[in-house]
C-alpha cells in the first residue's frame, strides 16, 4: 500500500523504493529507541512518514526532469502476475500480495501524466483522497495542514484533473482489441488501417531518455503519427522482437521484448465518444523498463 501511494505521487518506481527505505529507517529508529508504543496507529504513522518523505524528494526529482532529454513519462509497472509463474514460497506470496494491492489502486499512464501537472501538495491530496479514499481531516494530519487548506487543495486538484481528463474508464476488452488492431496495422505497414484507428488530433509521447534517434518532442496529427509508427516498425523494430500483450498501470498494453529484454512499453488512450486513439505513450528508456524486465525474465524461464 505504501508503494502504491508513493508511486502515484512520484511516477517513479526507483524513487519510490528509496522513499520506502527511508520510511523503514525512520520506523526502525523509533522502535529501537523504545518509542513504538507511543504510535497508536502504525499504518497512519507509516503513511505520514512515506508521504512527507515523497514530498521532500520532489525537489530533486523536479531538477532531474528539467534536464531530461525529450518527453518524460512515468515508469511503467506491470499490474498483473504472469500466469506461467507458479511458486508457493512465502516470499513469492508476499510479492503477490503487494502486486495485488498495486493492481487494486493502479492509476493509468494517462492519469499519471495529468498528475504531473499538479503541484506536489495538490498531487498528494488528490492521490490520498481520490485514489485511496482518505478523508480531508485524515490528510490534514498526514500533511500537517488545516482541514480547510486540504479541502482547497483537493478542489483545485480535482478541477485541474477533470479539465484535462474527464472521468472515463474504457472497457478493458475494447481497449485490448483496439491495441491489437493498432499493432497489427503498424507492423503490417497498413497506413490506411492505422489512420482509421487514430483520432485527428492524436499525440504520440515517446520517452527515450536521450537515446540516439529518440523523439525530443511529442508528435501530433493523424498522418504524422501513422507514418512515424509504420516507418519505425518497418525500419527500426528488430525482426526478432516479441510482442506481448500485458496489463501496465491497469491498462491493456504492449511490451516489446528483444533478446529476452524489454525494449519498449506502449499504452494507448481512447476517446470516450468514438474509442479512437487519442494518445500513445511509448516508453523506450531502458532505465524505466527494469521492473517490466523482471516479469519478462520470469515469463521466459
Please summarize what this structure is.
With 301 residues, the protein is an alpha+beta fold. The protein has twelve helices and six strands.
Describe the secondary-structure layout.
Layout (H helix, E strand, L loop, with lengths): L1 H9 L2 H20 L9 H25 L23 H15 L4 H7 L4 H12 L4 H8 L3 H18 L7 H16 L3 H7 E10 L11 E2 L1 H14 L6 E7 L2 E8 L2 E10 L6 E7 L6 H11 L1
Parallel strand pairs: 1-6
Antiparallel strand pairs: 1-2, 3-4, 4-5, 5-6
Question: What can you see in these coordinates?
Answer:
With 301 residues, the protein is α+β, with helices and mostly antiparallel strands. The protein is built from twelve helices and six strands. The chain has helices at residues 2-10, 13-32, 42-66, 90-104, 109-115, 120-131, 136-143, 147-164, 172-187, 191-197, 222-235, 290-300; strands spanning 198-207, 219-220, 242-248, 251-258, 261-270, 277-283. The chain has a six-stranded mixed beta sheet with strand order 2-1-6-5-4-3, sandwiched between helices. Helix 2 (13-32) packs across helix 3 (42-66) and helix 7 crosses helix 8. It is elongated, with a radius of gyration of 20 Å. The two termini are 29 Å apart.
- Overall spatial form: elongated
H and E order: HHHHHHHHHHEEHEEEEH
Percent helix: 40-55%
User: What is the CA–CA distance across the termini?
Assistant: 29 Å
Q: Residue-averaged pLDDT, rounded?
A: 87
Give the amount of beta strand, in percent: 5-15%
Question: Strand order across the biggest sheet?
Answer: 2-1-6-5-4-3
Q: How many strand units?
A: 6
Number of helices in the DSSP assignment: 12
**Structural classification:** alpha+beta
Largest sheet report: 6 strands, mixed
Low-confidence stretches: 81-104
| Rg (CA only) | 20 Å
